[in-house]
Each structure stands twice: as C-alpha cells, then as structure tokens.
Amino acid sequence: MKRPLIAVLNGPNLNMLGMRQPEVYGRATLDDVEQICIQAAERLDVAIDFRQTNGEGELVSWVQECRNRAQGIVINPAAYGHTSIALLDALLAVELPVIEVHISNIHRREEFRHHTYCSRAAAGIICGLGVRGYAMALQAMTDMILDENDR
Ligand code: CA2
C-alpha cells in the first residue's frame, strides 16, 4: 500500500531559524527541522513534503495543492497564523486534518501572538515544545490518518 503523504508547511522567517533569537527558538536550523521530520516520517512509515515560504499567497497555494494529494497538513504558519484569514480559508477549504505547530510558547509571549486564525481549522496545536513539536505533530497526524483509514 502507498504511504500516506503529510505536507509539512512553514511560514515566513522560519528560514532564519538557528541564526537569531536562540533564546526564543533554540539553535536548530530549518535544515535540522527537516531532518527531524524526515527521521520521524521514516519511523512512522509516511511520506512528507517539507516546504518553507515567506509569501502568504504561496503558502495559500501550497495548502490548496494539498487537496487530492496529501492526507494531512502539519503547518507552522509563523506570523501568518496571527494575521491571515486567507490562510485560514484555505485550510478550511482543503478538508484535510491540520495540526498547527509553534516552536515557542505563543501564550507566554506578546498578547498579539496569543490568537491564531489557523487554530480554527486545526484538529490540534502543539506549541512551546521546541522543534520536537514537529515530530510529535507527525506522530499525531499519522495516528489520525490511520484511524480514519480504519473506519
Ligand atoms: O514559535 C513559532 O514557531 C512561531 O510560529 C515563530 C514565528 C512567530 O511569528 C510566531 O509568533 C511563533 C517567527 C518565525 C521565526 O522567526 C525567526 C526570526 C528570527 C530568527 C529566527 C526565527
């Protein structure tokens, strides 16, 4: 049987991970995060499509492309989570399970980071657990896909 495909999408400035603000985001780079996801995917026997963009429109297009292609979306929307109704609309329209990840604990930070539009489309949110949150999200998403396939 074909392995389920999980899209792992990353929003703006996450390409700068590991270069600045290690006290907030840790020392791992985005390449390290991709490796963490690749290793988790091998363990879980799923395929991943790992991407990052600084563009809101591109992120929206990537979410749309997941329809009829991927079985689930793990997304760190970064700042667009706090601002983008367009991204929320795309996540709702695609009708796939979504897990939102934030590396930092957005609830311990500035007030404007406490709300995310994306969370309305998310089955669950992982935040504040560092980059290991991505592996946890892939584990949870795989469980959800397998549960759905068993129905
Ligand atoms: O904690 C997270 O994962 C965030 O999604 C990261 C976003 C931030 O806007 C969210 O509120 C929480 C920021 C992306 C990374 O930005 C960096 C900026 C400088 C150096 C390293 C990363």
From TrEMBL:
Stored Pfam families: DHquinase_II
Domain of life: Bacteria
Keyword vocabulary terms for this entry: Amino-acid biosynthesis, Aromatic amino acid biosynthesis, Lyase
Catalytic site positions: 25, 102
Feature type site, description Transition state stabilizer: 20
Keyword Disulfide bond included in the entry's annotation: no
Record's catalysed reaction(s): 3-dehydroquinate = 3-dehydroshikimate + H2O
GO BP, sorted A to Z: amino acid biosynthetic process; aromatic amino acid family biosynthetic process; chorismate biosynthetic process; quinate catabolic process
GO terms, molecular function: 3-dehydroquinate dehydratase activity
UniProt cross-references to Gene3D superfamilies, sorted A to Z: Dehydroquinase, class II
Residues holding substrate: 76, 82, 89, 103-104, 113
Alphabetized SUPFAM superfamilies for the sequence: Type II 3-dehydroquinate dehydratase
HAMAP family in UniProt: AroQ
Family: Belongs to the type-II 3-dehydroquinase family.
Subunit structure and binding partners: Homododecamer.
Protein name: 3-dehydroquinate dehydratase
Gene: aroQ
